[in-house]
Amino acid sequence: MLSQSQRTAILELHLKGVGTRQIARALKVSRAAVKKVIRSQSSIPPPIARPEKAEPYRQEILELYASCKGNLVRVHEELAASADISYPALTAFCRRHGIGQKPTLPAGQYYFEPGEESQTDTSPHKVKMAGRLRPVQTASEVLCYSHMLFFQFYPTFQRFDCKVFLTESAKYFKGSCKRKMIDNTHVVVLRGTGADMVPVPEMAAFAERYGFEFQAHKVGDANRSGRVERPFNFIERNFLAGREFADWNDLNQQAREWCDKVNSTYKKHLRAIPRELFAVERTYLKPLPIWVPEVYRLHHRIVDVEGYVSLQTNRYSVPWTWIGRQVEVRETKDRIEIQCGIRQSVCHERVIDTLGKRITLSEHRPARGQGVKRSEPRPEEKTLGEMVPEIAGYVSALKKHGRKYITVALRQLLRMAREYPRDAFRSAVAEAAHYGLYDLDRLERMVLRRIASEYFELETKDK
After folding, report:
1. CA distance linking residue 436 with residue 430, whole number of Å
2. Does 459 reside within a domain?
3. Who's near 294: CB < 8 A, 6+ residues apart?
4. Among residues 107, 202, 360, 458, which is most buried (max CB within 10 A)?
5. How far, CA to CA in Å, does 64 sit from each of 70, 86, 100?
6. Whole-angstrom Cα distance, residue 197 to residue 189?
7. Residue span of the structural domain in which 303 resides
């Protein structure tokens, strides 16, 4: 079929007196087509009056589309029983008549002034670290005007990790934009979505410190955060491809260096270098506060019997004299600070992975021969020696021949010495020592029998 421009050219040449054969040669079309256009005297191509094969089955196709839940393959299978229509003909008919087709809306574009907005988000990736492939969370932030990029990797992305990343990005950009666009993540959102989002008070206070406010885009409106969504594929296919890392510090350090390189590279879609645009935007950023406090997470623990404090399956040593005491654990990005009281504290390098590792410092263990001496008497034994020194021999024999744990046995013996009359207690212990009796429950019954006969008058029945 000839186009409208070809038909117009044919009519104009015909009006100038050019012959049919000459017009056909000039436009490289057939003479029959030229004659047909001249006869019609119209530059508009005629409509094609060709019936569609699927038109008689339109209603049946609509019903099958609803019952098959929009699956055109199933619609064609069901329709094949009553109509001889190919699958391409069916899909073309549905496209032309808008059956199951959503209208394509034109894409919009967002414009941002310098320092107006930055966008931050996370995405899961797989990283080869220490010889094995492991999942990580990639946190990224992009300045919307200059397209400056900064990203880091974390094993998880909780509220603590979010504050660590936002602090690092603020230091990298040497300031913050007025608005920080996020998705509707529970890390920041307390309730609501989009414009009605209310941040968690902890995160709102954090944002106030750096002079910005959180704003969430509408649910399903991914284009609103397109500045930060686009680089994730770029990171996966360029930075992570073919790279292997020793540990988390090596991974994040290489990521920072790669950001410096990328931000200094010319971008075709910007027709500029992000670092040069950032020179303009930096003057509009909210400056960092005079003092940037270190982000930390606070825990309270009790030192276990081995002299360790457990934190996320890893165990950190403390001085052995702290066993049984409550301590305050402050977890920062790189360190674990353990404080006992006001003046006593120890510091460990933080283990990021939950590996069940045991981190021990040599100064936290007593030197050989300076530990607790097993020969020292227990506190209960000392108290018994002061209260009833006559039973010292029985206590020594009880420690050798008693069936209960020695601490439990000594506590039970101390309780009897405190609760029962002293003479009855001494007499019962002397008899038990004579017969080699170390069952303390039976010893207590012997004491009670003496008390009943010596200190109470029992009524007897008249014969």
Report:
1. 10
2. no
3. 332, 333
4. 360
5. 8, 16, 12
6. 7
7. 296-364
Same structural domain, 197 and 264? yes
Q: Is the pLDDT of residue 404 over 70?
A: yes
Q: Is 370 domain-assigned?
A: no
**Secondary structure (DSSP) of 373-389:** -TTSPPHHHHHHHHH-G
Distance separating alpha carbons of residues 96 and 140, to the nearest angstrom: 42
Task: Write the pLDDT tens digit of every residue in 411-431.
Answer: 889 999 999 998 889 999 999
Cβ-Cβ contacts under 8 Å for 441 (sequence gap 6 or more): none
Model confidence at 405, pLDDT cuts 50, 70, 90, reads: confident
Q: What is the pLDDT of residue 374?
A: 56
pLDDT value at 83 more than 90: no
> pLDDT tens digits, residue range 297-318?
999 999 998 999 999 889 999 9
- Residue 14 vs residues 43, 45, 383: alpha-carbon distances, Å: 13, 17, 130
HEC letters along 221-258: CHHHHHHHHHHHHHHHHHHCCCCCECCHHHHHHHHHHH
Confidence bin at 461 (pLDDT 50/70/90): low
On whether the CB atoms of residues 189 and 216 are closer than 8 A, the answer is: yes
Q: Strand runs (DSSP E) across 303-343, as ranges?
A: 308-311, 314-317, 326-332, 335-340
pLDDT at position 459: 58
> Tokens standing for 184?
């509707």
Q: How far is CA 243 from CA 236, 249, 366, 410, 433, in A?
A: 11, 14, 45, 64, 77
Backbone angles phi, psi at 172, to 5 degrees: -65, -45
Residue 165 forms part of a structural domain: yes
For residues 126 and 247, state if they share a domain: yes
- pLDDT band for position 371 (cuts 50, 70, 90): low
